[in-house]
Write a structure and sequence with these properties.
Blueprint (H helix, E strand, L loop, with lengths): L2 E3 L3 E5 L5 H8 L14 H10 L12 E7 L5 E11 L4 E8 L8 H15 L5 E7 L3 H9 L3 E12 L2 E11 L3
Parallel strand pairs: 5-6
Antiparallel strand pairs: 1-2, 2-3, 3-4, 4-5, 6-8, 7-8
Helix pairs in contact: 1-2
Length: about 180
Amino acid sequence: MLELHTERLHLRTLSANDWELFLTLHNDPENLRYVFDPLSRAQIEERFNSRLPHWDVDSSHWLCLLIRDRHSGEGLGFTGLRISDRDTAEAEVGYLLLPQHQGKGLGAESLRAVMDHARDTLGIKHLIATVTDGNVASCKVLEKNGFALKQRNERAFQLGGRDFDDLIFGCRLSA
C-alpha cells in the first residue's frame, strides 16, 4: 500500500473501506458544481471500483489516494494521478475535498505530496490538470504548486446543460 506523509496529512491508497467517504463526496451537488453533473449511485460505484485495483506506473486507471488528517485520522477527501502519456512521462492530477476542509491549504499540501512522489518515485516529468472555468479555488491550488495555465478549450465541457471552457494547467517537474 502506498503511503505519503506531509506535516498535516497522511495519504494512502484507496481501499474498499473508503466507500462511504467516496459516496459522500460524489453525492454533494454543490461540491461538484465545477466537476461533473450528479451521478447515479451505480455510476459512483463504477468510479470507485475502477480505482480499487492495484496501481503501478503501467496502469491505465487512476491512482486514488485517501487524504486523512494526520492527527485525528479523519478522512478529508481524495487526490491522485493517472498516467496520460507514458512516452513523455506525463500524468494528470486531480483532487476533491469535503467542503468543510476546503480553503485551509490541504488541497495544495496533498497535491505537493503527489507531485513529489510522481517526480521522485515514478519518474514523471510533466503534470497536467483540467479545471472547469469558474473554479477559482482549484486554479489557486494549482498555481500555488507551480502550475500555469497552458490552454483554454472553449465550450469543451457541459455542466447542468451549460457549456464551460476547460482550463488546462501544466507543470514541469524538475529533478
